[in-house]
Amino acid sequence: MKIIGSFVSPYVRKVLACMHLKGLDYEIDPITPFFGNDEFRRLSPLCRIPVLIDGDFSASDSSVICAYLDEACPGYPLLPADPKDRARARWLEEYSDTRLGDVFIWGLFYQKIVHPMVWSEPGDQQRIAKVLAEDAPATLDYLEGELPERGWLFGDFSLADIAIASFFRNAAYADFRPDAARWPRVASFVERALAHDAFASTLPFEDIQRRVDIRGRRQALLDAGAPLTAESLGLPTPRKGMMRL
User: Fold this and answer.
1) Span 159-178, average pLDDT
2) Of 1, 81, 157, 165, which is the most exposed, with the fewest CB atoms less than 10 Å away?
3) 35 and 237 Cβ atoms separated by less than 8 Å
C-alpha cells in the first residue's frame, strides 16, 4: 500500500497509526497538499491528504481509508464490536476530524506554522486569539466529559482514541497544550495516547519533516529509514486551492 501525505498531518498520522495497529506495511510520499502536482489532484479532487493507493484502488479521505483498512485487512479491529459503541466511536472520529481540525489545525497550526512557512505571510492573529479564548476551551470542555480517566475509550486502543489524540500533536507544535488543572482527563488521555507506539514510531520522521528544508527533506527521511515511495507527486513550489492538511 502507498500513502500520499505528510507525516505531520493529523489525518495522515491517524491512518498510519491504524496501519501500525493492523501490522500493515506501507510506502509513503510525504507531501503536503499545497505541493501536490496534477496527478495528486486527480487522485484527491478535494486536495485532501492522505491518499491511499492499494493496487488499482485509491481513496482520499482519512475516515474512508480507515474504514477500508478495517474491512479489507483482518486482524486488529479499529472499531468496537457493540453497535452503540461503534456509532459513538464513529461520532468521535467525525468530531475530531471536523471540530478539532477546525480549532487546532486551521485555527492554530495553519495560522502560526504553515501559513508563514508556505506563503511567507503572517497568519490571522484575530483567529488565533478567538481560538485560544473561546473555541479551544469549549472544545476541551466537551472532551473532558467524554474521555476516560484511565485507559482507552472502548477497551483496547483503537480508532476513536487515535482520531482524537492525533490533533493534539499539531496543537503542541503550535505551542498549545491542555491545562491539566482545568482539563485533567484530556491532558492525561493525550499524554498516554501520544506515547503509544502507534504514534511514537513515526515521531522521528515528523521531527525531520518539521526541521529540514524541503530541498533536503526527502533524503533526510530516507537516511532515517522512512519507507518512502520511489517517486513523488510533489512540486518544488506550492499551489493554492481547496485542501485539507
Assistant:
1) 98
2) 81
3) yes
